[in-house]
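Could you join me in thinking about how sequence relates to backbone shape in a protein? Label the sequence line and the structure token line clearly, so we can match residues to local backbone shapes. Once you have written the record down, we can walk along the chain together.
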Amino acid sequence: GDATLNGDVKGGKLIVSGKTTVADGKTVDSDVDTASLELAGGATIKRTVNVTGEGVDVTLKGTTAINGALNLNGGDLILNKQTLNGTGTVNGVDVAVLGSMISGTVTVNANSAIIVGDFEMDGGTLNIDGDVANQAAETATIEVSGGTLSVGGTVEANLTISGTADVTVTESVTGTVSNTSTGDEIGRASCRE
């Protein structure tokens, strides 16, 4: 069944066959195996999280953080002002990013990405097989100061990717891709056909 954690959890392993919800401001200092995960504002998971099952989802809200390994295969990874700063691998997901950050050594292998608001990478790896789209009315920015961002599809209009780290776009760029350390616009010139 489902589990809602309204208190802190420490030690051992938490196994939930359904959805695990961690309440606002609570800390889980245990390994977690669950079918889907939702962290409320201020919640933190300090150890390894394995999310498995059909249509699995990880939704992080508020100033939550996963400091340990996050292992997710399939489903949606929804970041809303969070930081993934641990380790782990996220495979075969659709990513929705709202003003969040990836750091540490997290590897995210995504089908596609929807950016709403600015997004920052200062470590880790974000591999997007498909397109990167901006869902906001104003231009959104992906700032890559560390780690590696690879886009297998199109960087759509109204989206700017900039930074000093590695950015690769395979198909085409209708938005802007630039390197802020050199001032060069790398846009289509950085695309590999």
Remarks:
- The longest strand covers residues 9-22.
